[in-house]
Amino acid sequence: MRQLRILAAVGLMGTAAAANAGVSSTWTLASDYDFRGITQTAQDPAIQGSIDFSAESGWYIGAWGSNVDFGDADVDLEVDVYTGFSGQSEGGLGYDVGVVYYAYPDDNDFDYIEAYGSISKDWFKGKLWYSNDFGGDTTDGDTPGFYAEANGTFPLPQNFSILAHVGYSFGDYWEDADSEYYDYSVGVGYTLNQFNLALKWVDGSDLEAADGTPDDVFSSESRVIFTFATTFPWSND
Prior knowledge:
It is a single chain. This protein is mainly beta. It has a single domain (2-232), classed as monomeric porin ompg (Porin, Beta Barrel), CATH 2.40.160.40. The chain has 2 helices and 14 strands, in the order H-E-E-E-E-E-E-E-E-E-E-E-H-E-E-E. It has a 12-stranded antiparallel beta barrel. Strands 2-3 form a two-stranded antiparallel sheet. The termini are far apart.
């Protein structure tokens, strides 16, 4: 329960700070924490929260947290800290570049850094991630890893939308494990006042777990995931 108390404390600070201009806090309940097709909570529910600050210049900084379950590794909490710069051209082409630090307070051997860059236009967003040492000190030496993804959000009447995603993990980290893999998801989103709901089907390559690892830890098998999210401060629109 320690990670839930930490997330609750962050949430209280985020909700209070959200009254200030440029600050927001997003909270999500998820039936599973899906990271690039791989469960991070052994297919159990997750409580996730963030606090973010964005400036008019396009610069932003924030922190995000979630409970996790890495099996015998005894890691219960993930906290990501990130900063970047985003904007949009006069023609409507969006861009976003930044860096994120993945921290695991229970065992910092898992900590690592990723850089990212994306472009977006209308319903489409493409993004590339790179880490010079994916997985942190849990691997031997520096093991670079890449992740390329394409995402689509297609608006429908009555506040519904179709959600689509495809991604591919590659680079030395995955080559060493002989498991470069793809993942994809398709689902439907719905906006109800201040709340965003989504139901999606997630699938990907069938990755083999390490010997002795329970089948539900780091599983990439197909599954249905439901999320319920809201962002503070609530708009009056």
